[in-house]
Description:
The chain is α+β, with helices and mostly antiparallel strands. The protein has one domain: Gcn5-related N-acetyltransferase (GNAT) (Aminopeptidase). Helices cover about 25% and strands about 30% of the residues. The protein has helices at about 30-35, 55-70, 115-130, 145-155, 185-200; strands at about 15, 20-25, 75-80, 85-95, 100-110, 135-145, 160-170, 175-185. It has an 8-stranded mixed sheet with strand order 1-2-3-4-5-6-8-7, sandwiched between helices. Strand 7 and strand 8 (about 175-185) form a beta hairpin. The longest helix is centred in the middle third of the chain and has 17 residues, at about 115-130.
Amino acid sequence: MSVQPAKAAPQPIILDGLYVRLEPIDMRHAADLFAVSTLPGGAERYRWLLSDAPESVAAMEQRIAAANAGPDRHVAVIDKASNKAVGQQGWMRIRPEHGSIEIGGVHWGLPMARSRLATEAFYLFARHAFDDLGYRRFEWKCNAHNAPSKAAALRFGFTLEGVFRQDMIAKGESRDTAWLSIIDGEWPALRAEYERWLAPDNFDAEGRQKTKLMTTRP
C-alpha cells in the first residue's frame, strides 16, 4: 500500500483555541516571555532546556531572532484571558516527505504550567499536524532524566519508544534522550478525549478540572 507524505511544513499562521492562541513568535512577545522567566521559580523551568533563562529582554529578543532564522517554526502561547505571552513551543524535525514532525523547544511558563492552557497549546499543535497537514507521526523528545517532561508526554497520550544513550552534550553534561510518539491511527481517539476534557463545562469557576484527561492506553 502506498503511503502518502504530509501536505506541507507548518506555515506561520495563528491557531486559535478556547483558552490560548498560538501565533508566530515575534519581538513583541519578548517582554512578556522575559517577565514569565523572572517569576519566582521561573528559571527552574529552563533546567532541562538547552539554554538557561534569559537575563534581559534584549537577550530574549536575540533568542527570538535566532529561532526565526533557523529551520524550525516557533510560536508564542498567548493566554486569551490576559492577552499576554505565557510560553513558547516549536515545530522541529519537520519532515513532510516522511510525514513526521516534532513538538520541541517547549517552555511553558508558570502561569500556564500544568493547566488547561498547556494542554490546549499541545492539542492545537497535534490537531494541526494530523488533521490539517496530514502528518502520520508526531514526536516528543526530552532528557531521559526529565521526569516531569516524560510524565507530561505520557499524559498527552505519547508512547515511549526508547532512549538514545549519550545522544548529545547539553550544558556540559552527557544527555540521554527519551523518544516518544503519537501516530495517526491513535489520533482520532486522543482528539475526542482532548475535546471532551477541554470543554468549558469540565472546569469550575476557578479553572479547576472536574474530570481527568484519560489518554493513557493499557
